[in-house]
Amino acid sequence: MQVSVKLFGGLREYLPAGSAFNACVLNLPEGSMLTDVLSHLPIPENKTYIVLLNDVKLDREAHADTIVSASDEIVLLPPIKGG
Question: What is the pTM of this model?
């Protein structure tokens, strides 16, 4: 299946070669977990980011238990700081 992933802000630098401005399409087997999707992106483990799956924020603990499908929208955002 093909899964679409969008990365925003400084996370865009971790998109695979040949990606569009802020999005890529990954080919994964049916039944893949969110952790499988994230493992295809070269984001350092110490990098903090927020994952939205179909506009719902997921905690890191849920990544290993979340099955993705081709129709899902996966978005990675850097944390937002303000003051």
Answer: 0.90
How many CB atoms sit inside 10 A of residue 77's CB? Answer: 15
Rounded CA separation 2/64 (Å): 19
Going from N- to C-terminal start, the domains of the chain cover 2-77
pLDDT tens per residue, the chain (83 residues)? 999 999 999 999 999 988 888 999 999 999 999 999 999 999 998 999 999 999 999 999 999 999 999 989 999 999 887 66
- What is the CATH T-level fold of the domain 2-77, as seen in this structure? Ubiquitin-like (UB roll) (3.10.20)
Interatomic CA distance for residues 11 and 52, integer angstroms: 14
Phi-psi region of 12 (alpha: psi -120 to 50; beta: other; left: phi over 0): alpha
For residue 56, give the 3-state DSSP assignment. strand
